[in-house]
Amino acid sequence: MVSGAPAKERARAYATLSGSSLAPGSARALLRAAIAEWTGLGLPGAEHLTDRLADDALLVVSELVTNAVVHAGTDVQLECRLEGDGKDSAALLVEVSDHHPSRAPRGGEPETPHDTPEYGRGLRLVGALSEAWGITYRTGRKTVWARLPAGGCDADDQIEAYAGEHALARGLRVAEILAPEPPPGQEARARGPREAGHPHDPGGGSGDLRDWQDLRDWRERYEDCDGRDGRDGSWLGRGALSFLAEASDLLAGQLDEDLVAALAGQLIVPRLADWCAVWLEDEATAGGWSGGAGAGGPRLARVWHGSENRIEELRRALEKDTPHPSDPSGSGPSDYPWPGEALGDAPGEPGSALAYRLVAGGRPLGTLVIGRSGSAGFPDEITGLVEDLSRRVALAIGAARQYARQATISAVLQRGLLPGAVAEIPGVRSALVYEPCDKGGPSGDFYDLFPAGDGRWCFAVGDVQGKGPEAAVVIGLARPWLRLLAREGYRVADVLDRLNQLLLDDATEAADAAARALVAAGARPTPPGDGPQTRFLSLLYGELVPFDGGVRCTVASAGHPLPLLLGAGGEVHTAAQPQTLLGVVEDATYASETFELRSGDTLLCVTDGVTERRSGSRQFDDGDGLATALAGCAGLDAELTAERIKRLVHEFGARPPADDLALLVLQAE
Fold it and tell me: Which of 70, 58, 4 is nearest to 27 (CA)?
């Protein structure tokens, strides 16, 4: 939406979403924001955007995006438009496109035994809520669209039938299960984990407060919904579908599989079942549904019961009986033995328990088990609803595991790219601040401080163009070569000369390899400038040689923020000359500067995450801001100087830093 654009253009919202489990939640958030903006701007037709139409549109968007993510797996384009200006002509149009046109979207076709369904309630819901819908195929693109009229469709009967042909007959019993009143003396059944003081609150009471507040808000909304009196089955249709959409929002973006399991229990108990348990497969050995609960088998990650004093005893009983779904290729739930004794039931007292496989991407992730006392068992409406919810739980667990794998790889990689400890230099105090912006991936900034032999120590502060794996490759080349060349006795300028040539040679080899791969694949040659880019590196590199009364420092800067020297009297000046980035110019020749650090002199080396820290249109180093900040550190030791500069950088802008921060302080004693 563009301010100042024609109304037709302003009544349009669009975005490209990644093909992941986060896409449906992002799509709903986009649509909510668009409807709010259209209403606020008073655009033609916005007066007909009722709450019901907004709810219907959110459900349609959620289903269409879910279908695209699960069955195409590509990026998804979402477009929403407000059309018309009169009540009879105004409508909300939703279009969802993916790039896998060979697969049709899921509708109501029967499932094959080997097709694990991971989709939502399907296009029957879209058809029930929409005035019209259809599918458009273009080269490399499939678009599913739906048009929702301003007055809304008379879809209650269709949704009711969709929830089950016996929904009205079972209305009273089902409504009691979906939104029960807490029995007398068991108010804890309707309280969240923090309010009840439950010991199984994820993280032992240190979980994300926002997540649990969202859960309490969600619970209040759905425990008080219509249909409780049994005369209205609307909750089973529209309310149950909203339940799934909101549950998806709660689960989306969770980065810990145990927290996903805990949220699943809170979503299910007490409105859908009396108790719930989640087993998680060991990712390293998961591959089938057989095997016990021993090493490598499923672990009981979370147990929840409407009555908290039953949880521990129920856990002990369930740990002895790991679920084994009888038909691994089937899609529905299987029976699970009723743990009557653990629940305090009298011998022979009936109860029903069902086990649902948690599968995402064809890979088994665990099992969800629900239980309900009584002889009636679970109505079909409940089993279907939990089956839909279990798919969302499985997708959330899969996403959390993928994040955990990536975070582990990144942490291991980051540890290998940075020194385990900085060297101690006689007569020199040092202090380091290193704050990567992206905690989940390798940083583009790096540092080193190491002995080079013959009474010499060398230091480096560098910044690679970009982040992630590409940056890691460059750092993995640069830091070992710096150490090797320094210990071979090369001077500071010579080290930069050789490192520059190394980066250029490596880039040339990478480009040649890419070209050979393209030729082997029969592709056209890559035009100049479109192939692998040169790996640029800015670097501040220096050598320290202590002597009686001070330290001799030789330093060179290659495209890096210049080091600042703070004298004992408070004066500040630069200590090097600007030169070209490494990895840019063939046969570049670098020069170095030599000076002495006397007692109390301080050398400050930073990356551009410090100098280019932003506050609106201003940067931290505008008007020699860094030099001014360093001058204010006169009389402070190295540690306090580093801490003060870091604090000033953080306080400069209202938002957290958007780039990696690295600074090294060297001070002569």
Answer: 58
Give yes or no for a contact between 660 and 613, defined as CB atoms under 8 angstroms apart: no
Instruction: Characterize 602-622 residue by residue with b for buried, 16 or more Cβ atoms within 10 angstroms of its Cβ, and e for exposed.
Output: bbbbbbbbbbebeeeeebbbe
What is the C-alpha separation between 543 and 479, in angstroms, rounded?
15
Average pLDDT of the residues in 368-384? 85
Least confidently predicted of 35-39, 97-101, 367-371, 391-395: 97-101
Please tell me the distance from the alpha carbon of residue 320 to that of residue 112, in angstroms, as a whole number.
33
pLDDT tens digits along 542-573: 999 999 889 999 999 999 999 999 998 889 99
Dist CA 420 CA 367 (whole Å): 41
Structure-token pair, residue 91: 């409508």
- Structure-token match 């808000």, residue found: 217
Q: How many other β-carbons are positioned within 10 Å of the β-carbon of residue 568?
A: 13
Cα separations in angstroms, 632 against 323, 361, 599, 641, 654: 66, 57, 18, 9, 22
pLDDT of residue 598: 92
- Is the alpha carbon torsion for 475, 480, 482, 485 positive or negative? negative
Cβ atoms within 10 Å, residue 386: 23
Task: Indicate left, alpha or beta for 374 from its phi (over 0: left) and psi (-120 to 50: alpha).
Answer: left
Distance, in Å, from the CA atom of 22 to the CA atom of 396, rounded to the nearest integer, reads 9
With cut-offs at 50, 70 and 90, classify the pLDDT of residue 239.
Answer: low
Q: Is 602 left (phi over 0), alpha (psi -120 to 50) or beta?
A: beta
Q: pLDDT, tens digit, for every residue of 268-323?
A: 888 888 999 999 988 655 444 433 344 457 899 999 888 888 888 889 889 888 88
- Contact status, residue 145 vs residue 131, Cβ threshold 8 Å: no
Please report where in the chains the tokens 């969709």 appear, as a residue. Answer: 162
Nearest to 259 by CA among 198, 202, 195: 202
For 506, phi then psi, to 5°, come to -65, -40
Distance between CA atoms of residues 13 and 61, nearest Å: 13
Distance CA 642, CA 633 (A): 9
DSSP alpha helices (H): ranges in 168-309?
171-178, 193-196, 209-223, 234, 240-251, 257-268
For CA atoms 361, 366, 372, 375, give the dihedral sign: positive
Q: Which helix (H) or strand (E) holds 602?
A: strand 602-606
Is the model more confident about 106 or about 410? Answer: 410
> pLDDT tens-digit profile of 471-525?
777 888 888 899 999 999 999 999 999 999 988 888 777 666 666 766 676 655 5
Q: What share of the chain is helix, strand, coil (3-state, %, to 5)?
A: 40, 25, 40
The two structure tokens encoding residue 106: 């899921």
| 100, 116, 153, 416, 442 from 111: Cα distances, Å | 20, 8, 29, 48, 43
Distance CA 368, CA 262 (A): 11
Question: Which one-letter DSSP state was computed for residue 425?
Answer: B
- Whole-angstrom distance, CA of residue 436 vs CA of residue 445: 8
Single out the residue of 106, 95, 370, 119 nearest to residue 244, CA to CA. Answer: 119
Predicted local distance difference test score (pLDDT) of residue 648: 94
Q: At what angle do helices 380-417 and 257-268 cross, to 10 degrees?
A: 160
| Contact by Cβ (8 Å): 391, 118 | yes
3-state secondary structure of 406: helix
